[in-house]
Automatic annotation (TrEMBL):
The keyword Lyase applies. HAMAP family: AdoMetDC_1. It catalyses: S-adenosyl-L-methionine + H(+) = S-adenosyl 3-(methylsulfanyl)propylamine + CO2. Is synthesized initially as an inactive proenzyme. Formation of the active enzyme involves a self-maturation process in which the active site pyruvoyl group is generated from an internal serine residue via an autocatalytic post-translational modification. Two non-identical subunits are generated from the proenzyme in this reaction, and the pyruvate is formed at the N-terminus of the alpha chain, which is derived from the carboxyl end of the proenzyme. The record marks 65-66 as: Cleavage (non-hydrolytic). Binds 1 pyruvoyl group covalently per subunit. It comes from Thermoproteus uzoniensis (strain 768-20). The modification Pyruvic acid (Ser) is found at residue 66. This is S-adenosylmethionine decarboxylase proenzyme.
Amino acid sequence: METVVIGRHVYGNLYDCDRDVLRDETRLIQIVRNAARIANATLVSVNTYKFGANGGLTVFAIVAESHISIHTWPEHGFATVDVYTCGNTDPEAAFNYIAKELNAQRVEVFRGDRSLRR
């Protein structure tokens, strides 16, 4: 069986994160940009959405190889992270970098194989 498309999906839940970082739009954008570089992915664009003055944020990067997203709930010190890439990339390294930068005290990580085999 030949692998035609290599796709890896690393996603999870980050607990007891730094609440200040979870609120910091500028910092989260930089974290996502760095994560794309660490994954060896090609950054296409970064968008954000803020949920009210004191609410959480969604930071979503489109990379040529798919996407990276962070969703934050600062009031709970909680974030979810999704890194899905294809090709010669390292989504696991990007996920681990994000968890470290958010200072997550507990991490649940899940992995999915999104490859096409024929």
